[in-house]
From TrEMBL:
Keywords: Cell inner membrane, Cell membrane, Membrane, Transmembrane, Transmembrane helix. This is Inner membrane-spanning protein YciB. Its main location: membrane. One of its GO terms (cellular component) is plasma membrane. The lineage of its organism: Bacteria, Pseudomonadati, Pseudomonadota, Alphaproteobacteria, Rhodobacterales. It is a multi-pass membrane protein.
Amino acid sequence: MAGKKISPWVKGALDWGPLVAFFIAFNRLKDGHYEILGRDYSGFIVATALFVPLIAISTFLLWRLTGKLSPMQIATLVLVLIFGGLSVWLNDPVFFKMKPTIIYLLFAAILGAGLLRGKAWLQLVMDEAIPMEHAGWMILTKRFVALFIALAIANEIVWRTMSDSVWVDFKTFGLPIILIGFILSQSKLFERYGIEKPKADEDGQGDA
């Protein structure tokens, strides 16, 4: 099924809305403890319990609106459901904090496996946005593998050595800023290996 275009504002709201909601909920609830069905929960766990269904709903809406989901979106949803669910069920925030580590290591492993076979699987996800020659995708994929491993290590250091507030700030702002900064830093690579998309027939007619 071909993907359908949606407004960038709608896509941005669905992509980032659950994370922003988690950040707001955590900062409002972090100092309290809440009794639910006879169990005492921290504000962190309550915010996590809100985040898990929100990301499930937003991913479902993205699928309904666009007709497709990337492998990364599917993997992220599955791991959020597993690790976020475990944190809520066991009343232990550690599982949710480990989720970014597992996600980044999984992405690094998948991309690394593709590289061993001479394939740049990152191209399957990003080629529509950044068309490049195969050689460029191989270089970018290697760099993303290194980035994902570094982010996994960074997440482990932050959640194990710092407060919940610092980790939430790092997850909400630090990780996205690093990813965006990394992509912007690859401009030379995009210029060297980029290719122009073929222009659509202005008359909208194709061969019979």
